[in-house]
Write a structure and sequence with these properties.
alpha/beta, Urease, subunit C, domain 1, binds zinc ion
Length: 425
């Protein structure tokens, strides 16, 4: 099937060159786009081909999220925790671990479907998720994969394994990961964080990642407590501990947050080439501090940490915070926003090809040019303007509505599952 985007204002996401052109978009996991000067006549088109009129619309590559948690979807509006958390460790204990232990497969499905809808409607078509449900581990990753597939967005999943709930859930987490990756799914070996992962588990996780030619996806030094724990238990800082375990040799690894690192740890990460994901809104929400990432050179992406699904919002927040922490400019934040594609490309992950496209109804009061686009990116373009979204050459959002699933049905299901979850808390 070919999708023709007629009379588009097309922005090349890498060169920022703007062209008035048609686009021919091919369907498929790795297929791309061409920019024909004329469209084929209707009688020469295949029956399933389609033309979308893009006159006046800004068309560009859709977006990706480097660190997400679908498991937090049903937390919105939930009852207050049994104790008001006084620090980050208590936020985990009284909020997130209180929720994730009560998730069952049905709630996970609802969370993934609703989250995928929000991602799609925000123009996000490639999602790297980090999932936890200690009492429903088996099959959790395939439930999430199927939900994402139904909505039509591409994914790179993992289960966050840890020692926090003992040997049973730890071994189940390893088994779920092994089975999911062995079935040919793309993903990581997920770990929660250094302070909930003992040496035996860390060793097993690195071995599992090597077995599947994957990497780790883990929270790193999100709070100072993670460093204090590593120093007390192992006499090493968190990144040094991961280095000793061989985790820095796994180039596909994603280290989320990296707030409380020394310069030496940052240099270790830089030399290793592993990837870091910045999530400033979540860091501010949890009051764990904010970090500068300049020493990490270019391997920095942006994520949501499950706070929401809107990567344009993540980029704006990272820009505002980054001015004081590292003097970041428009070009720096745009590069970070787009680095998720470079990450996917570097390791041949499927589902983030050139045929992932967003059509923006961008009602700008001023002219958009190649030279001033980054100013529009930071101050003008937002998710409200996401009109149509194409993932792997297939339309998944049209006129602001998801076309692949019934949004109302999913939200009704999610709301029922939310009540069920809150009832168990
Ligand atoms: Zn996270």
């Amino acid at each position: 099937m070919t999708l023709y985007l007629k009379n588009a204002t097309f922005l090349d996401w890498q060169s920022l060159e703007i062209k008035r052109t048609h686009l021919a978009v091919e369907e498929g996991s790795q297929n791309g786009i061409t920019l024909p000067t004329t469209l084929p006549s209707e009688d020469t088109m295949a029956r399933e081909d389609r033309v979308i009129d893009c006159a006046g619309k800004l068309v560009t590559k859709s977006f990706g999220c480097g660190h997400h948690h679908i498991y937090s979807t049903l937390a919105r509006g939930m009852p207050a925790p049994p104790k008001i958390p006084a620090n980050f460790t208590e936020i985990l204990q009284y909020v997130w671990w209180h929720i994730d232990k009560r998730l069952d497969l049905e709630m996970i499905e609802a969370s993934a479907l609703a989250s995928a809808i929000y991602c799609a409607k925000s123009g996000v078509t490639f999602v790297v998720d980090h999932h936890a449900s200690p009492m429903a581990i088996k099959a959790s990753l395939s439930v999430i994969a199927q939900a994402f597939d139904r909505v039509g967005i591409a994914h790179l999943l993992c289960y966050e394994i840890s020692d926090r709930d003992g040997e049973g859930p730890r071994e189940e987490g390893l088994a779920e990961t092994d089975n999911f990756l062995a079935a040919g799914n793309q993903g990581h070996v997920g770990l929660h964080a250094s302070f909930t992962v003992g040496d035996e588990l860390l060793k097993k996780a690195v071995a599992l990642a090597k077995k599947h030619d994957s990497g780790l996806h883990v929270h790193v030094a999100e709070d100072r407590a993670d460093q204090e724990d590593a120093l007390a238990k192992y006499g090493l800082r968190v990144v040094e501990r991961f280095e000793r375990a061989g985790a820095l040799e796994l180039k596909k690894s994603i280290f989320a947050h990296c707030i409380h690192l020394t310069d030496r740890e940052k240099l270790l990460l830089r030399e290793s080439g592993v990837w870091v994901v910045q999530n400033v809104e979540s860091n501010q929400n949890n009051n764990v501090g904010v970090a500068g990432y300049t020493l990490l050179t270019d391997n920095v992406m942006l994520g949501t940490d499950g706070m929401h699904c809107d990567m344009l919002r993540s980029a704006k927040a990272a820009f505002l915070v980054g001015q004081s922490t590292e003097g970041i400019g428009f070009d720096g934040i745009y590069r970070r926003f787009r680095n998720v594609h470079r990450y996917a490309q570097a390791f041949d992950f499927r589902g983030d090809g050139d045929n992932n496209i967003v059509i923006l109804d961008y009602d700008s009061p001023t002219e958009v040019t190649s030279d001033n686009f980054l100013g529009h990116f930071v101050y003008g373009i937002d998710a409200r303007q996401v009109e149509t979204v194409i993932c792997r050459g297939r339309v998944i959002v049209e006129n602001h509505r998801v076309t692949t699933v019934d949004e109302n049905e999913v939200l009704t299901f999610a709301s029922e599952m939310g009540k069920k979850l809150w009832g168990k808390m």
